[in-house]
């Protein structure tokens, strides 16, 4: 099963550059998880001020200011939700304080 994990750093953490020690630990974790086949893709996200939400409602389209904090995302390969949660916990131990939202990607098969 595949899961989307979105990292929401704790207040004050978004947009800051991590120090060299933190980057080394994160690179090590990413390489380890990719080699094990658990991490399929990951990238950091720009600060929310550089993003937007586009909404379609009764009045047409509107562009809303981004309000949720997100530091990055990962596509995980896991046996179960519990396995994906354990992977998210391992990530948070390296990334630091924050929340990792984990959602299963519904695989619809060939169309």
How is this fold's topology laid out?
Layout: E1 2-9, H1 20-35, E2 39-44, E3 52-57, E4 60-65, E5 72-77, H2 81-95, E6 98-104
Integer tally of domains: 1
- Which parts are unreliable, with pLDDT below 50 for 5 consecutive residues or more? none
Fourth CATH level, the homologous superfamily: Dimeric alpha+beta barrel
**CATH class category label:** Alpha Beta
Q: Termini distance?
A: 18 Å
What is the helix fraction of residues, given as a range? 25-40%
Structural class: alpha+beta
Q: Could you write a compact summary of the structure shown?
A:
28% of the residues lie in helices and 35% in strands. It is α+β, with helices and mostly antiparallel strands.
Written account of the structure:
The protein has one domain (2-104): Dimeric alpha+beta barrel (Alpha-Beta Plaits), CATH 3.30.70.1060. The relative contact order is 0.33. The strands form 2 sheets. It has a 4-stranded antiparallel sheet. Strands 3-4 form a two-stranded antiparallel sheet. By secondary structure, the chain is α+β, with helices and mostly antiparallel strands. The protein has helices spanning 20-35, 81-95; strands at residues 2-9, 39-44, 52-57, 60-65, 72-77, 98-104. A hairpin with a 2-residue loop joins strand 3 and strand 4.
What features would you highlight for this structure?
alpha+beta, 4-stranded antiparallel β-sheet, 2 helices, 111 residues, Alpha-Beta Plaits, two-stranded antiparallel sheet
